[in-house]
Amino acid sequence: MRFNSSPMLVGSPIRLHAIGFGPPVRRMSESANVTPGSVNMKALPDGSAVLTAPWETSGTPRTIVAETAWRCDARPTAACSSSPERTLGLSRWTLAAPSAERVVNRSEGTCHTIAVSLKSTDLTFCHGTRVICDGRVTPGVTQITQPGQEVSAVFRAPCDVLHLYAPQELLRECYAHVCGRAPGGEVMLGNAALVPDVAVSQLAHALVCAHVEGPTVNDLFTDSIGLAIVTRLLSREIHATRKAQRAVTELPRWRLKRAIEYIDAHLSEAIRLQDIAQSTGLTRMHFAAQFRAATGMSPHDYLLQRRIETAQVLLATTKQGVLDIALATGFCSHTHFATVFRQRVGETPTRYRAQVRDADHLTYRCN
Protein backbone atom coordinates (compact mmCIF):
# COMPACT_ATOMS: atom_id res chain seq x y z
CA MET A 1 0.00 0.00 0.00
CA ARG A 2 1.52 3.33 -0.98
CA PHE A 3 1.73 6.40 1.21
CA ASN A 4 3.49 9.71 0.64
CA SER A 5 6.37 10.36 2.96
CA SER A 6 5.73 13.96 4.04
CA PRO A 7 4.53 13.88 7.65
CA MET A 8 1.38 15.53 9.00
CA LEU A 9 2.17 16.65 12.52
CA VAL A 10 -0.41 17.17 15.24
CA GLY A 11 0.29 17.63 18.94
CA SER A 12 3.31 18.58 21.06
CA PRO A 13 6.02 17.56 21.62
CA ILE A 14 6.68 15.29 18.61
CA ARG A 15 9.91 13.44 17.81
CA LEU A 16 10.94 13.60 14.15
CA HIS A 17 13.33 11.01 12.74
CA ALA A 18 15.61 12.63 10.22
CA ILE A 19 16.30 9.32 8.47
CA GLY A 20 12.58 8.82 7.77
CA PHE A 21 11.81 5.80 9.96
CA GLY A 22 8.47 5.38 11.69
CA PRO A 23 4.95 4.60 10.48
CA PRO A 24 4.06 5.79 6.98
CA VAL A 25 1.86 8.86 7.03
CA ARG A 26 -0.37 10.75 4.64
CA ARG A 27 0.49 14.06 3.00
CA MET A 28 -1.43 17.02 4.37
CA SER A 29 -4.16 18.30 2.07
CA GLU A 30 -3.10 21.27 -0.02
CA SER A 31 -6.17 23.11 1.21
CA ALA A 32 -4.88 23.11 4.79
CA ASN A 33 -3.13 26.35 5.77
CA VAL A 34 -0.13 25.77 8.02
CA THR A 35 0.83 28.37 10.60
CA PRO A 36 4.28 27.50 11.91
CA GLY A 37 4.76 30.82 13.70
CA SER A 38 5.49 29.55 17.22
CA VAL A 39 7.08 26.25 16.25
CA ASN A 40 10.56 25.68 17.65
CA MET A 41 12.74 22.81 16.46
CA LYS A 42 15.37 21.43 18.83
CA ALA A 43 18.10 19.14 17.47
CA LEU A 44 19.00 16.03 19.49
CA PRO A 45 22.35 14.17 19.59
CA ASP A 46 20.87 11.09 17.86
CA GLY A 47 20.05 13.10 14.75
CA SER A 48 16.33 13.44 15.50
CA ALA A 49 14.47 16.57 16.48
CA VAL A 50 11.65 17.62 18.79
CA LEU A 51 8.83 20.03 18.06
CA THR A 52 8.14 22.11 21.12
CA ALA A 53 4.81 23.49 19.84
CA PRO A 54 2.10 22.11 17.55
CA TRP A 55 1.49 22.98 13.96
CA GLU A 56 -1.95 24.44 13.48
CA THR A 57 -4.08 23.52 10.50
CA SER A 58 -7.18 25.23 9.29
CA GLY A 59 -8.17 22.25 7.09
CA THR A 60 -11.32 20.42 8.23
CA PRO A 61 -10.81 16.68 8.89
CA ARG A 62 -13.19 14.31 7.14
CA THR A 63 -16.07 13.02 9.23
CA ILE A 64 -18.51 10.12 9.10
CA VAL A 65 -21.44 11.68 7.27
CA ALA A 66 -24.99 10.88 8.38
CA GLU A 67 -26.86 9.41 5.40
CA THR A 68 -30.06 11.06 4.28
CA ALA A 69 -30.59 8.26 1.75
CA TRP A 70 -29.51 4.64 2.25
CA ARG A 71 -25.98 3.89 1.01
CA CYS A 72 -25.52 7.28 -0.63
CA ASP A 73 -21.98 8.68 -0.39
CA ALA A 74 -22.94 12.12 0.89
CA ARG A 75 -19.44 13.51 1.37
CA PRO A 76 -18.95 17.14 0.41
CA THR A 77 -16.85 17.43 -2.74
CA ALA A 78 -14.20 19.41 -0.90
CA ALA A 79 -13.68 16.54 1.54
CA CYS A 80 -11.92 14.47 -1.09
CA SER A 81 -10.84 17.10 -3.63
CA SER A 82 -7.10 16.40 -3.25
CA SER A 83 -7.32 12.82 -4.56
CA PRO A 84 -10.92 11.62 -4.92
CA GLU A 85 -9.90 8.48 -6.83
CA ARG A 86 -7.96 7.24 -3.76
CA THR A 87 -10.06 8.65 -0.90
CA LEU A 88 -12.20 6.32 1.21
CA GLY A 89 -15.71 7.61 1.81
CA LEU A 90 -17.48 7.14 5.15
CA SER A 91 -21.14 7.44 6.04
CA ARG A 92 -23.55 6.03 8.61
CA TRP A 93 -27.11 4.79 8.21
CA THR A 94 -29.16 4.78 11.40
CA LEU A 95 -32.79 4.07 12.14
CA ALA A 96 -34.21 4.69 15.61
CA ALA A 97 -37.36 2.68 14.90
CA PRO A 98 -38.46 -0.15 12.59
CA SER A 99 -39.63 0.79 9.11
CA ALA A 100 -41.80 -1.05 6.63
CA GLU A 101 -40.36 1.04 3.80
CA ARG A 102 -38.15 -0.77 1.29
CA VAL A 103 -34.95 1.15 0.64
CA VAL A 104 -33.15 0.69 -2.68
CA ASN A 105 -29.71 1.67 -3.95
CA ARG A 106 -28.40 1.00 -7.46
CA SER A 107 -24.72 1.68 -6.64
CA GLU A 108 -24.45 4.10 -9.54
CA GLY A 109 -21.02 5.40 -8.49
CA THR A 110 -17.66 3.80 -9.18
CA CYS A 111 -16.94 2.65 -5.62
CA HIS A 112 -17.42 -0.67 -3.88
CA THR A 113 -19.75 -0.24 -0.91
CA ILE A 114 -18.70 -1.97 2.30
CA ALA A 115 -21.35 -2.24 5.01
CA VAL A 116 -20.47 -3.05 8.63
CA SER A 117 -23.31 -3.67 11.08
CA LEU A 118 -22.67 -1.78 14.34
CA LYS A 119 -25.65 -3.21 16.23
CA SER A 120 -28.08 -6.08 15.96
CA THR A 121 -31.01 -5.64 13.64
CA ASP A 122 -33.65 -7.61 11.77
CA LEU A 123 -33.99 -7.16 8.03
CA THR A 124 -34.59 -8.56 4.60
CA PHE A 125 -31.61 -7.80 2.34
CA CYS A 126 -31.73 -8.45 -1.39
CA HIS A 127 -28.87 -8.50 -3.89
CA GLY A 128 -30.65 -7.84 -7.14
CA THR A 129 -33.59 -10.24 -7.08
CA ARG A 130 -31.83 -12.73 -4.78
CA VAL A 131 -32.58 -12.65 -1.05
CA ILE A 132 -29.24 -12.71 0.78
CA CYS A 133 -30.60 -12.45 4.32
CA ASP A 134 -34.05 -12.59 5.89
CA GLY A 135 -33.70 -12.45 9.66
CA ARG A 136 -31.46 -11.33 12.47
CA VAL A 137 -28.09 -9.73 11.80
CA THR A 138 -25.51 -9.47 14.58
CA PRO A 139 -22.94 -6.70 15.12
CA GLY A 140 -19.78 -7.12 13.06
CA VAL A 141 -21.47 -8.63 10.01
CA THR A 142 -20.02 -7.24 6.77
CA GLN A 143 -21.39 -7.06 3.23
CA ILE A 144 -19.72 -5.87 0.04
CA THR A 145 -21.55 -4.53 -3.03
CA GLN A 146 -19.89 -3.97 -6.39
CA PRO A 147 -20.45 -0.76 -8.39
CA GLY A 148 -23.61 -0.89 -10.49
CA GLN A 149 -25.26 -3.63 -8.42
CA GLU A 150 -28.78 -2.95 -7.19
CA VAL A 151 -29.46 -3.82 -3.55
CA SER A 152 -32.51 -3.30 -1.37
CA ALA A 153 -33.51 -3.80 2.25
CA VAL A 154 -36.40 -3.63 4.68
CA PHE A 155 -35.35 -2.93 8.27
CA ARG A 156 -37.76 -4.48 10.76
CA ALA A 157 -35.76 -3.25 13.75
CA PRO A 158 -33.61 -0.23 14.64
CA CYS A 159 -30.23 -0.34 12.94
CA ASP A 160 -26.84 1.31 12.85
CA VAL A 161 -24.61 0.57 9.85
CA LEU A 162 -21.26 2.03 8.85
CA HIS A 163 -20.74 2.33 5.11
CA LEU A 164 -17.32 2.67 3.48
CA TYR A 165 -16.97 3.62 -0.20
CA ALA A 166 -13.76 2.22 -1.71
CA PRO A 167 -12.73 3.58 -5.13
CA GLN A 168 -10.95 1.37 -7.65
CA GLU A 169 -7.56 3.04 -7.32
CA LEU A 170 -7.59 2.44 -3.57
CA LEU A 171 -8.49 -1.23 -4.07
CA ARG A 172 -5.63 -1.59 -6.56
CA GLU A 173 -3.16 -0.17 -4.04
CA CYS A 174 -4.45 -2.51 -1.33
CA TYR A 175 -4.23 -5.46 -3.72
CA ALA A 176 -0.61 -4.63 -4.54
CA HIS A 177 0.15 -4.44 -0.82
CA VAL A 178 -1.51 -7.78 -0.05
CA CYS A 179 -0.24 -9.73 -3.08
CA GLY A 180 3.09 -8.05 -3.62
CA ARG A 181 2.27 -7.23 -7.25
CA ALA A 182 -0.01 -4.93 -9.20
CA PRO A 183 -3.37 -6.39 -10.28
CA GLY A 184 -3.77 -7.34 -13.93
CA GLY A 185 -7.08 -5.50 -14.25
CA GLU A 186 -9.84 -4.06 -12.12
CA VAL A 187 -10.09 -5.37 -8.55
CA MET A 188 -13.64 -6.61 -7.98
CA LEU A 189 -14.82 -8.01 -4.67
CA GLY A 190 -17.49 -10.50 -5.67
CA ASN A 191 -18.75 -12.10 -2.46
CA ALA A 192 -22.08 -10.43 -1.66
CA ALA A 193 -22.87 -12.66 1.36
CA LEU A 194 -23.27 -11.29 4.89
CA VAL A 195 -20.16 -12.47 6.72
CA PRO A 196 -19.31 -11.92 10.41
CA ASP A 197 -15.80 -10.59 11.00
CA VAL A 198 -14.60 -9.81 14.52
CA ALA A 199 -11.54 -7.85 13.37
CA VAL A 200 -13.57 -5.60 11.06
CA SER A 201 -16.15 -5.09 13.80
CA GLN A 202 -13.51 -3.86 16.25
CA LEU A 203 -11.93 -1.56 13.67
CA ALA A 204 -15.31 -0.09 12.71
CA HIS A 205 -16.24 0.59 16.34
CA ALA A 206 -12.85 2.21 16.96
CA LEU A 207 -13.43 4.51 13.99
CA VAL A 208 -16.97 5.41 15.03
CA CYS A 209 -16.05 5.99 18.68
CA ALA A 210 -13.15 8.25 17.70
CA HIS A 211 -15.38 10.34 15.45
CA VAL A 212 -17.91 10.70 18.26
CA GLU A 213 -15.14 12.37 20.29
CA GLY A 214 -14.77 14.87 17.47
CA PRO A 215 -11.71 17.14 17.61
CA THR A 216 -9.19 14.38 18.41
CA VAL A 217 -9.70 12.72 15.02
CA ASN A 218 -7.63 13.64 11.96
CA ASP A 219 -7.44 12.33 8.41
CA LEU A 220 -4.46 10.12 9.18
CA PHE A 221 -6.38 8.19 11.82
CA THR A 222 -9.45 7.92 9.59
CA ASP A 223 -7.42 6.71 6.61
CA SER A 224 -5.44 4.20 8.69
CA ILE A 225 -8.52 2.50 10.17
CA GLY A 226 -10.44 2.65 6.90
CA LEU A 227 -7.56 1.15 4.93
CA ALA A 228 -7.16 -1.57 7.57
CA ILE A 229 -10.81 -2.55 7.05
CA VAL A 230 -10.50 -2.58 3.26
CA THR A 231 -7.25 -4.56 3.37
CA ARG A 232 -8.75 -7.09 5.78
CA LEU A 233 -11.76 -7.73 3.54
CA LEU A 234 -9.63 -7.85 0.40
CA SER A 235 -7.24 -10.35 2.02
CA ARG A 236 -10.18 -12.48 3.14
CA GLU A 237 -11.61 -12.64 -0.38
CA ILE A 238 -8.24 -13.34 -2.02
CA HIS A 239 -7.63 -16.18 0.45
CA ALA A 240 -11.09 -17.64 -0.18
CA THR A 241 -10.56 -17.45 -3.96
CA ARG A 242 -7.21 -19.21 -3.76
CA LYS A 243 -8.66 -21.88 -1.50
CA ALA A 244 -11.49 -22.51 -3.95
CA GLN A 245 -9.01 -22.75 -6.82
CA ARG A 246 -7.06 -25.37 -4.86
CA ALA A 247 -10.18 -27.40 -4.13
CA VAL A 248 -9.89 -30.89 -5.64
CA THR A 249 -12.76 -32.52 -7.47
CA GLU A 250 -13.59 -36.11 -6.63
CA LEU A 251 -12.43 -38.95 -8.85
CA PRO A 252 -15.29 -39.76 -11.25
CA ARG A 253 -17.10 -43.00 -10.46
CA TRP A 254 -15.96 -44.77 -13.59
CA ARG A 255 -12.33 -43.95 -12.82
CA LEU A 256 -12.74 -44.98 -9.18
CA LYS A 257 -14.26 -48.29 -10.31
CA ARG A 258 -11.35 -48.87 -12.67
CA ALA A 259 -8.80 -48.12 -9.91
CA ILE A 260 -10.48 -50.53 -7.46
CA GLU A 261 -10.67 -53.26 -10.10
CA TYR A 262 -6.96 -52.84 -10.83
CA ILE A 263 -6.09 -53.07 -7.11
CA ASP A 264 -8.18 -56.21 -6.59
CA ALA A 265 -6.75 -57.88 -9.70
CA HIS A 266 -3.13 -57.26 -8.65
CA LEU A 267 -3.49 -57.59 -4.88
CA SER A 268 -0.75 -60.21 -4.57
CA GLU A 269 1.73 -58.05 -6.48
CA ALA A 270 3.82 -55.02 -5.55
CA ILE A 271 1.50 -52.23 -6.70
CA ARG A 272 2.90 -48.77 -7.32
CA LEU A 273 0.92 -45.54 -7.25
CA GLN A 274 1.92 -44.92 -10.85
CA ASP A 275 0.41 -48.27 -11.86
CA ILE A 276 -3.00 -47.43 -10.38
CA ALA A 277 -2.93 -43.91 -11.81
CA GLN A 278 -2.13 -45.21 -15.30
CA SER A 279 -5.10 -47.58 -15.11
CA THR A 280 -7.35 -44.50 -14.76
CA GLY A 281 -5.56 -42.35 -17.32
CA LEU A 282 -4.34 -39.76 -14.80
CA THR A 283 -0.99 -38.59 -13.51
CA ARG A 284 0.08 -39.72 -10.05
CA MET A 285 -0.47 -36.28 -8.50
CA HIS A 286 -3.97 -35.75 -9.91
CA PHE A 287 -5.04 -39.33 -9.23
CA ALA A 288 -3.88 -39.30 -5.59
CA ALA A 289 -5.67 -36.01 -4.81
CA GLN A 290 -8.91 -37.02 -6.54
CA PHE A 291 -8.85 -40.52 -5.03
CA ARG A 292 -8.56 -39.06 -1.52
CA ALA A 293 -11.39 -36.62 -2.25
CA ALA A 294 -13.61 -39.51 -3.39
CA THR A 295 -12.80 -42.08 -0.67
CA GLY A 296 -11.37 -40.10 2.24
CA MET A 297 -8.27 -42.31 2.08
CA SER A 298 -4.96 -42.13 0.27
CA PRO A 299 -4.37 -44.83 -2.39
CA HIS A 300 -1.76 -46.44 -0.11
CA ASP A 301 -4.13 -46.63 2.86
CA TYR A 302 -6.89 -48.02 0.67
CA LEU A 303 -4.53 -50.66 -0.74
CA LEU A 304 -3.50 -51.79 2.76
CA GLN A 305 -7.16 -51.90 3.80
CA ARG A 306 -8.05 -54.11 0.83
CA ARG A 307 -5.10 -56.42 1.57
CA ILE A 308 -6.19 -56.84 5.19
CA GLU A 309 -9.86 -57.38 4.29
CA THR A 310 -8.86 -60.10 1.81
CA ALA A 311 -6.57 -61.68 4.41
CA GLN A 312 -9.44 -61.77 6.93
CA VAL A 313 -11.58 -63.67 4.45
CA LEU A 314 -8.79 -66.17 3.73
CA LEU A 315 -8.06 -66.69 7.44
CA ALA A 316 -11.71 -67.37 8.16
CA THR A 317 -12.56 -69.55 5.16
CA THR A 318 -9.40 -71.46 4.20
CA LYS A 319 -6.73 -73.61 5.83
CA GLN A 320 -3.84 -71.79 4.20
CA GLY A 321 -0.90 -70.95 6.43
CA VAL A 322 -0.44 -67.39 7.66
CA LEU A 323 2.69 -66.93 5.54
CA ASP A 324 0.89 -68.13 2.41
CA ILE A 325 -1.95 -65.70 3.08
CA ALA A 326 0.56 -62.89 3.64
CA LEU A 327 2.19 -63.53 0.28
CA ALA A 328 -1.18 -63.95 -1.47
CA THR A 329 -2.28 -60.52 -0.27
CA GLY A 330 0.90 -58.70 -1.31
CA PHE A 331 2.92 -58.64 1.91
CA CYS A 332 6.59 -59.44 1.53
CA SER A 333 7.02 -61.17 4.90
CA HIS A 334 5.13 -62.76 7.77
CA THR A 335 6.39 -60.06 10.15
CA HIS A 336 5.18 -57.16 8.03
CA PHE A 337 1.81 -58.84 7.53
CA ALA A 338 1.38 -59.53 11.25
CA THR A 339 2.30 -55.93 12.17
CA VAL A 340 -0.13 -54.30 9.74
CA PHE A 341 -2.87 -56.81 10.54
CA ARG A 342 -2.64 -56.14 14.26
CA GLN A 343 -2.62 -52.35 13.72
CA ARG A 344 -5.83 -52.49 11.72
CA VAL A 345 -7.72 -55.41 13.27
CA GLY A 346 -6.46 -55.33 16.83
CA GLU A 347 -5.37 -59.00 16.88
CA THR A 348 -2.61 -61.09 15.34
CA PRO A 349 -3.60 -63.18 12.28
CA THR A 350 -3.35 -66.42 14.30
CA ARG A 351 -5.47 -65.08 17.15
CA TYR A 352 -8.04 -63.69 14.71
CA ARG A 353 -8.36 -67.08 12.96
CA ALA A 354 -8.84 -68.81 16.32
CA GLN A 355 -11.56 -66.35 17.38
CA VAL A 356 -13.44 -66.76 14.11
CA ARG A 357 -13.32 -70.54 14.30
CA ASP A 358 -14.44 -70.55 17.95
CA ALA A 359 -17.38 -68.34 17.00
CA ASP A 360 -18.30 -70.62 14.09
CA HIS A 361 -18.05 -73.74 16.32
CA LEU A 362 -20.29 -72.15 18.95
CA THR A 363 -22.83 -71.22 16.28
CA TYR A 364 -22.79 -74.81 14.94
CA ARG A 365 -23.40 -76.30 18.43
CA CYS A 366 -26.30 -73.92 19.08
CA ASN A 367 -27.94 -74.93 15.84
TrEMBL record:
Pfam family, one: HTH_18
Leader sequence residues: none
Keywords in alphabetical order: DNA-binding, Transcription, Transcription regulation
Molecular function terms, GO-annotated: DNA-binding transcription factor activity; sequence-specific DNA binding
Residue ranges of domain HTH araC/xylS-type in the record: 257-355
Keyword flag DNA-binding: yes
PANTHER family: HTH-TYPE TRANSCRIPTIONAL ACTIVATOR RHAS-RELATED, TRANSCRIPTIONAL REGULATORY PROTEIN
Protein name: Helix-turn-helix domain-containing protein
Organism: Paraburkholderia elongata
